């Protein structure tokens, strides 16, 4: 059996179409990956801000994950807006049950979304501990500098990475998009090796969805069987092109573009084969 690789995003809906699961699906499609979703919340959102959030019942979130995993067999999973502590607890239990994340066979890219780029909250304030608790499952956790400040109390990329690894993540990717200076530098580390991913900072206010796009591109490449460092390198090249092709729509911050990937995931091996290879089984 052959077909495209499959990835799953566990995320919120952005009615403005720039971030959240909409950005994830655009990104998966750009890589030739079949995208699936477990929706955590519906946001009332446009380019100016977020004016409402409707949370999905935790059991329905967990059931979406189960339905997708049992039938479509994703070979990578990405999380974005998780909304509340009860939703996070339900997701953690579903991940453990279905072999998602560390200790399982399906790699997990965990983007710890706390607020929108407008500063509107996307996570209930009492859910920070639950979110930190999920890090022990993460193949990679991908905070921006505002999120490292909230989660581990620092905006220093090296210090933040160290603290994130201490919470159990296998790799930390601390993004520098919210920094200053002519370069946009992200730090990827597993505590032994440091990789600085460096790109020109593009002058634009239209970066809505850049973080989701980086994490989704990483998941897309992982779904095709890349190692984590290779997946992140390809994702960084892609998000730089995405920012370069961003555009204005609406009165506020426009979205990044999603051009076809230069490094698409090969239509391949069914998910089972990728999982078997990852688990070290003989194909
Ligand atoms: N102006 C820019 N020029 C080039 N790269 C950028 C720019 N802004 C962000 N990036 C890159 O985009 C990715 C996302 O970074 P950022 O720190 O903005 O994450 P984020 O805040 O989670 O994104 P989002 O705006 O979706 O919430 C990183 O690889 C970052 O280096
Ligand atoms: C549903 C949802 N998920 C994630 C983001 C973060 O994206 P950004 O920081 O670009 O606003 C968002 N605004 N909405």
How would you describe this structure to a colleague?
53% of the residues are buried. The chain is α/β, with parallel strands linked by helices and 283 residues long. The longest helix has 17 residues, at 228-244. The chain has helices at 20-30, 58-72, 85-97, 128-134, 145-152, 157-166, 210-223, 228-244, 271-278; strands at residues 2-3, 6-14, 34-45, 50-55, 76-79, 108-110, 140-141, 171-174, 183-189, 194-200, 268-269. The protein has nine helices and eleven strands. Helix 1 (20-30) crosses helix 7, helix 3 (85-97) packs parallel to helix 4 (128-134) and helix 7 (210-223) crosses helix 8 (228-244). The model is unreliable at 274-283 (pLDDT under 50). The protein is globular, with a radius of gyration of 17 Å.
Q: How helix-rich are the residues, as a percent range?
A: 25-40%
Q: Identify the bound ligands.
A: adenosine-5'-triphosphate, (4-amino-2-methylpyrimidin-5-yl)methyl dihydrogen phosphate
Strands of the widest sheet, in order across it, are 4-3-2-5-6-7-8-9-10
The secondary-structure element order is EEHEEHEHEHEHHEEEHHEH
| Beta-strand content bin | 15-25%
How are the secondary structure elements laid out?
Elements: E1 2-3, E2 6-14, H1 20-30, E3 34-45, E4 50-55, H2 58-72, E5 76-79, H3 85-97, E6 108-110, H4 128-134, E7 140-141, H5 145-152, H6 157-166, E8 171-174, E9 183-189, E10 194-200, H7 210-223, H8 228-244, E11 268-269, H9 271-278
Parallel strand pairs: 2-3, 2-5, 5-6, 6-7, 7-8
Antiparallel strand pairs: 1-11, 3-4, 8-9, 9-10
Helix pairs in contact: 1-7, 2-3, 3-4, 5-6, 7-8
Bound molecules: adenosine-5'-triphosphate and (4-amino-2-methylpyrimidin-5-yl)methyl dihydrogen phosphate.
């Amino acid at each position: 059996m052959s077909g495209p690789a499959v990835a799953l995003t566990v995320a919120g809906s952005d009615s403005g179409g720039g971030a959240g699961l909409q950005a994830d699906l655009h990104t998966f499609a750009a890589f030739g990956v079949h995208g699936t979703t477990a929706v955590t919340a519906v946001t009332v959102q446009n380019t100016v801000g977020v004016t409402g959030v409707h949370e999905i019942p935790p059991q329905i979130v967990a059931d979406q994950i189960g339905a997708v995993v049992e039938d479509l067999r994703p070979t990578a999973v990405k999380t974005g807006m998780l909304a509340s502590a009860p939703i996070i607890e339900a997701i953690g239990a579903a991940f453990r049950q279905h072999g998602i994340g560390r200790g399982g066979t399906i790699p997990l890219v965990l983007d710890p979304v706390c607020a929108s780029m407008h500063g509107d909250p996307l996570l209930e304030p009492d859910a920070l501990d639950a979110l930190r608790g999920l890090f022990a499952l993460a193949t990679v956790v991908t905070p921006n500098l505002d999120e490292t400040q909230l989660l581990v109390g620092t905006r220093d990329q090296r210090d933040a990475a160290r603290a994130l690894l201490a919470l159990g993540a296998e790799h930390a990717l601390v993004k520098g998009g919210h920094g200053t200076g002519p370069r946009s530098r992200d730090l990827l580390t597993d505590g032994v090796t440091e990789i600085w991913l460096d790109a020109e900072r593009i002058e634009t206010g239209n970066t809505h969805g850049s973080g989701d796009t980086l994490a989704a591109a990483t998941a897309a490449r992982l779904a095709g069987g890349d190692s984590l460092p290779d997946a992140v390198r390809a994702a960084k090249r892609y998000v730089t092109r995405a920012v370069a092709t961003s555009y204005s729509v609406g009165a506020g911050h426009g979205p990044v573009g999603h051009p076809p990937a230069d490094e698409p995931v090969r239509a391949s091996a069914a998910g089972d084969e990728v999982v078997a290879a990852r688990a070290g089984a003989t194909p």
